[in-house]
Write a structure and sequence with these properties.
CATH superfamily of the largest domain: Glucose Permease (Domain IIA)
CATH architecture of the largest domain: Distorted Sandwich
Number of strands: 16
Order of helices and strands: EHHEEEEEEHEEEEEEEEE
Distance between the termini: 24 Å
Strand order of the largest sheet: 11-7-8-9-13-5-4-15
Number of domains: 2
Structural class: alpha+beta
CATH topology of the largest domain: Glucose Permease (Domain IIA)
Radius of gyration: 18 Å
Length: 211
């Protein structure tokens, strides 16, 4: 799925427009007391920003699918591809870019949605308890990578625009999560992690691991 990167994500256009109209109306009517509405407008603009990103050209890289902070680098079960895997998790707060981008070049073998709760996405249990949407993809050399959008405490909407059989390119925009969340990436056990716990990462430009 191509996306022209218009700097402000299309998912945010209704929120930005509504908050701008409300702020302008309040300014005309009550002047000084409109300040909180202008704060809301500024928040919406910064939350829904969607800048273009340069894609590293080196083969075998797994790129970060989201902006945020690394909250897990561990071996665990990948319930979507039925295997043991290396999991690297990225936590997004409300000040991060929330556009989600493919970490690899690959063909999607399945897209699995799981309903759930909305606990703090910074917690490990969010990976198994929260509402989530998993994309399982296979690279050209047969390696399987799973990337999972996980809803958070405030996030109530996971948007995924790809389906089984679609082809993805690294850095390609494939989804969006509104208002704070997490993305888990499950990799083959032989993958070599490049990101460490606590690191700040940026979608597409940060290398999470090497296959």
């Amino acid at each position: 799925m191509s996306y022209p990167h218009p700097l402000l994500a299309r998912e945010g256009w209704p929120f930005i427009a509504a908050s701008l109209i409300a702020a302008l109306t309040a300014t005309a009517l009550v002047a000084f007391w409109s300040i909180p509405l202008w704060v809301v407008f500024v928040f919406c603009v910064q939350f829904f920003r969607d800048p273009p990103r340069a894609v590293p050209p080196e083969a075998g890289l797994v790129l970060s699918p989201a902006d945020g902070r690394i909250v897990a680098v561990e071996e665990c079960d990948d319930p979507y591809a039925q295997r043991r895997a290396l999991k690297i998790s990225v936590f997004m707060n409300v000040f991060n870019v929330h556009s989600n981008r493919s970490p690899i070049d690959g063909s999607i073998t399945s897209v699995q949605y799981t309903p759930g709760s909305f606990v703090n996405a910074d917690l490990d249990k969010a990976s198994t308890e929260n509402e989530r949407n998993a994309v399982v993809a296979r690279t050209s050399d047969g390696q399987v990578v799973t990337f999972v959008q996980v809803a958070g405490l405030i996030a109530r909407r996971i948007l995924c625009y790809v389906n089984s059989g679609d082809e993805l390119k690294r850095g390609q925009r494939y989804g969006f999560i509104r208002f704070g969340s997490r993305v888990d990436v499950y990799l083959p056990l032989g993958a070599k992690p490049q990101a460490r716990l606590g690191d700040k990462v940026y979608a597409t430009t940060t290398v999470l691991a090497r296959l």
